[in-house]
């Protein structure tokens, strides 16, 4: 008979222990061990694969393998196609994670309903069919080949999938699924691990792409074992603040494309709208005469766009000055403030500094350093910056303006939006023909030269 064994498994990394421990010795997290019941077969009935039967898969020489381009499914969504690397690869397993209520199910259902002529199976373990019908009516899309299945038993899902033979399968969400192989509750480490492995085998054997919707924990990472992110082909992170209308879809892992791409959506009453030109939506048109506002030419992935950087500098009320940044790394802002004091001679020790990236975006491009220190200085001096000027440049610790990548795309984006001048690092235009642009290009070496161009 099978033996029943109780173990404690870490919900963060998947390590197991025969007894409960407060701190996981593998990942160092506290209070993450949960009890699970495992059934262990007796050694007499255990069959060792490979010794009793011949393997169906034979080793092949690398030179004998013929490479071919992966066939992709057009999802009729330019933003999603770009993040995936050109479309959804057949037989791939894609995981989409994000905050609760951010719009993961809305994005997937909206994409599925727009795929006419593609048989789709939408498996929901969180919502009923009537709830999905209400959401579909709100999205105002129709797909006659979309099947809805409200089930959490993985074996029953595979039975229905073999009957329907869908071209695309949606699992919403992987944390609600359970398999009868493991005796534990849905959402546990072992259930998520076994269910994801079974779904991966189904996707690879049948060639059917599967989209998994996953929960995240309070730290912001995908809930469940880390092996979940390892076995899937693509991991997408759906980010954004519920109080802002913009949503950003980032690629964390992608076996069939680049991880530097991102898609931008705007949340509306009837679903998510693709933002093809984010620069026009991220710029405020009426900031003329206002101090502390600069325009930075940033690049996320392969897309250039102009963003508005806002800064507010005021006298410190308490003994310790406040430093706050929204959408920007606070440690990098402190470094830039130190460069301002040391290299440019501006004293900000007794000043509160607040920095904000307009639109609720989180930008990691170092090319907006010059715009950040210019906005801080503009607010400190209470002098407005010409709204027809934008800038791009990385600031070093010695006060120099370092070159940035893909400066040509930044210049062309600024010219397309009607800017007349752009400040860029010195010698950053190697091989670029200046005659094809009408915008005035100002090259600077240090922050002092940039400040003279901005404030005279």
Describe this structure in words.
The protein has 456 residues and is an alpha/beta fold. It has 11 helices and 23 strands. The longest helix is centred in the middle third of the chain and has 18 residues, at 189-206.
Short account of what is shown:
The chain is of the alpha/beta class and 456 residues long.
Shape annotation: globular
Strand order across the largest sheet: 8-7-9-10-6-11-12-13-14
Task: Report the C-alpha radius of gyration, rounded.
Answer: 27 Å
Reported for the largest beta sheet, the result is: 9 strands, mixed
| Uncertain ranges | none
Mean of pLDDT: 86
Number of helices: 11
Task: Throw out a few tags for this protein.
456 residues; alpha/beta; nine-stranded mixed beta sheet; four-stranded mixed beta sheet; 11 helices; globular
Topology overview:
Blueprint (H helix, E strand, L loop, with lengths): L2 E8 L5 E2 L15 E8 L31 E2 L4 H7 L3 E2 L3 E6 L5 H10 L6 E5 L4 H11 L6 E5 L3 H11 L3 E5 L16 H18 L3 E5 L12 H5 L2 E6 L6 E9 L7 E7 L2 E4 L3 H5 L10 E8 L2 E13 L7 E4 L3 H15 L6 E7 L11 H13 L7 E3 L2 E2 L5 E2 L4 H10 L4 E5 L14 E5 L2 H9 L1
Parallel strand pairs: 6-10, 6-11, 7-8, 7-9, 9-10, 17-18, 19-22, 22-23
Antiparallel strand pairs: 1-2, 1-3, 4-5, 11-12, 12-13, 13-14, 15-16, 16-18, 20-21
């Amino acid at each position: 008979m099978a033996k029943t064994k109780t173990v404690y498994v870490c919900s963060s990394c998947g390590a197991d222990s025969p007894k409960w421990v407060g701190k996981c010795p593998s990942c160092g997290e506290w209070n993450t061990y949960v009890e699970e019941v495992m059934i262990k077969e007796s050694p007499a009935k255990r069959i060792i694969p490979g010794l009793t039967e011949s393997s169906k898969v034979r080793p092949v020489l690398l030179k004998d393998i013929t490479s071919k381009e992966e066939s992709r499914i057009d999802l009729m969504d330019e933003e999603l196609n770009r993040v995936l690397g050109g479309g959804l690869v057949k037989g791939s397993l894609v995981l989409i994670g994000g905050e609760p209520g951010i719009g993961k199910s809305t994005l997937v259902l909206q994409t599925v309903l727009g795929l006419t002529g593609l048989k789709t199976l939408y498996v929901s373990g969180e919502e009923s069919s009537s709830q999905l019908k209400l959401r579909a009516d709100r999205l105002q899309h129709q797909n006659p080949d979309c099947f809805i299945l409200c089930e959490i038993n993985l074996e029953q899902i595979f039975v229905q999938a073999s009957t329907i033979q869908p071209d695309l399968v949606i699992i919403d969400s992987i944390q609600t699924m359970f398999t009868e192989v493991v005796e534990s509750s849905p959402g546990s480490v072992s259930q998520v691990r076994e269910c994801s492995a079974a779904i991966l085998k189904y996707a690879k054997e049948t060639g059917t792409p599967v989209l998994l919707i996953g929960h995240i924990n309070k730290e912001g990472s995908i809930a469940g074992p880390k092996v979940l992110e390892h076995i899937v082909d693509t991991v997408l992170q759906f980010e954004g603040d519920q109080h802002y209308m913009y949503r950003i879809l980032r690629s964390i892992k992608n076996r069939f494309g680049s991880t530097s791409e991102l898609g931008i959506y705007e949340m509306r009453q009837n679903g998510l709208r693709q933002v093809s030109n984010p620069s026009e939506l991220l710029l405020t048109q009426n900031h003329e005469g206002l101090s502390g506002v600069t325009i930075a030419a940033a690049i996320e992935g392969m897309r250039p766009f102009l963003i508005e950087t806002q800064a507010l500098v005021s006298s410190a009320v308490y003994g310790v000055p406040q430093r706050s940044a929204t959408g920007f790394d606070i440690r990098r802002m402190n470094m830039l403030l130190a460069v301002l004091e040391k290299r440019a001679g501006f004293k900000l020790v007794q000043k509160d500094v607040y920095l904000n990236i307009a639109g609720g975006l989180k930008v990691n491009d170092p090319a907006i350093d010059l715009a950040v220190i210019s906005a801080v200085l503009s607010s400190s001096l209470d002098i407005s910056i010409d709204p027809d000027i934008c800038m791009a440049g990385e600031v070093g610790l010695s006060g120099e303006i370092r070159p940035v990548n893909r400066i040509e795309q930044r210049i062309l984006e600024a010219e397309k939006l009607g800017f007349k001048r752009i400040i860029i690092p010195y010698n950053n235009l190697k091989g670029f023909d200046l005659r094809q642009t009408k915008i005035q290009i100002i090259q600077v070496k240090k922050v002092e030269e940039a400040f003279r161009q901005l404030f005279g």
